[in-house]
DNA sequence: TTAAATGTAATTACTATGGTTACACATTGT
DNA sequence: ACAATGTGTAACCATAGTAATTACATTTAA
C-alpha cells in the first residue's frame, strides 16, 4: 500500500537535527546521511517547517534547525506533516444505491477505517522525537560495547 | 499515502456474500453493487480465495460464496488478504553507515513502525464481518424509520 | 561582494492501481 | 451432447504518487 518513505526520512532528518543542539545543518549534509538528494531533503524540510517542526536559516553557515524541543515533537506530528493522513481509500465511484449494501457500506467503512487510523495514530502520538533519539543512542552504545569486547 | 480501495471493495464484496446465505453470487452482480468491472471483482475474489475467505463455483448458476461463517472472518484477515501489509516504507537506499544516525535509524524505525502497525491491526482484528453486516442492517433500519416518518 | 545556502519549479523514471477487453476453461442444466 | 453461464487470468492502457535530479532566483553570513 504505502510506498512512501517520507515518514522514515523525516524521522531521520529530525533525529539528525536534534543531535545538532542548535547548530544549523545544511541539506547537503543531511542528504549525505540519508543517502539521497539535497533538493529532496529541502522539500521534506519545507513540509516540516510548514508544520512548525523546523526552521531554516539562509546564507553561509545556515541550514535547518529544530523549532521545538525533541520531547515536544511527537511522531504523530511528524507523520501528519509529511504523509497524507488517509490510511485506506474508500470507493472511488459511488456504490450502487439501489443495493442495500451499496447504500450503507461507506458509512460502515468510515467507522472501521477511522477506528483503525486512530489506533495507529495513538501509537505514533505516544512517542516523541526524544524517545527516538534515546533509542538511537542506546543502539550506538550497544554497538560500542560489542566492538570493545570483540577487539 | 495508501490510495488503494481494495480493502473497501473487499469488505463490500464479503458483506454481499454474507447476505446471500449460501446462494452463489456472480462477479457480474457484485460488480453492479460495487459499481465497477466484473473482472476486477474476480481478481479481488482470487485474493480472498487464496486467503481462504471465499470459494467459487463455476458454471451456470455459479458465483462466489463465503468459505467461513461471517463471525469467523475478522477484518484483519480481509486486510491482509488484499492489501500489502506494509504501512510505512523504510529507506530505499541504505542510510550512510558512517553517520551515527544512519547506522541505527532503521532499527529504531522498525520498532516504531511495527508498533503502529500492530495497533492498527489490533483494531481491525477486533471486528468481524458479522459486525460489519450488523452495522449495515442497523443503518438500513434507521433509513426505513426515517422514510416512514417523513412519509 | 563573494560564497553558501534555501526554496521551488520542472522534468524524468518508476511503481501501484483501477479499469477494460479478451479468451480459455469448467460447470450446470436441459 | 451441447449451449449457456460463469470463473480465472493475461494483456493493455491511463492515472496518480513518489523519488530522484537539475536548475535557478533569492537570501544571508562572512
From TrEMBL, chains A, B:
It comes from the Bacteria. InterPro entries: Tscrpt_reg_Rrf2, WH-like_DNA-bd_sf, WH_DNA-bd_sf. Pfam families: Rrf2 (PF02082). One of its GO terms (cellular component) is cytosol. This is Transcriptional regulator. It comes from Paraburkholderia madseniana. GO terms for molecular function: DNA-binding transcription factor activity. Transmembrane segments: none annotated.
Amino acid at each position: 500500500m504505502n510506498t512512501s518513505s517520507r515518514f522514515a526520512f523525516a524521522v531521520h532528518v529530525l533525529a539528525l537535527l536534534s543531535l545538532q543542539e542548535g547548530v544549523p545543518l545544511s541539506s547537503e549534509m543531511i542528504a549525505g546521511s540519508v543517502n539521497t538528494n539535497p533538493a529532496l531533503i529541502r522539500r521534506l524540510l519545507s513540509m516540516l517547517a510548514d508544520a512548525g517542526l523546523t526552521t531554516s536559516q539562509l546564507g553561509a553557515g545556515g541550514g535547518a534547525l529544530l523549532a521545538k524541543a525533541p520531547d515536544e515533537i511527537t511522531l504523530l506530528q511528524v507523520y501528519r506533516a509529511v504523509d497524507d493522513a488517509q490510511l485506506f481509500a474508500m470507493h472511488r465511484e459511488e456504490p450502487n444505491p439501489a443495493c442495500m449494501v451499496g447504500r450503507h457500506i461507506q458509512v460502515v467503512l468510515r467507522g472501521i477505517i477511522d477506528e483503525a487510523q486512530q489506533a495507529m495514530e495513538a501509537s505514533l502520538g505516544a512517542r516523541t522525537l526524544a524517545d527516538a533519539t534515546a533509542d538511537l543512542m542506546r543502539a550506538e552504545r550497544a554497538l560500542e560495547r560489542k566492538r570493545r569486547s570483540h577487539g
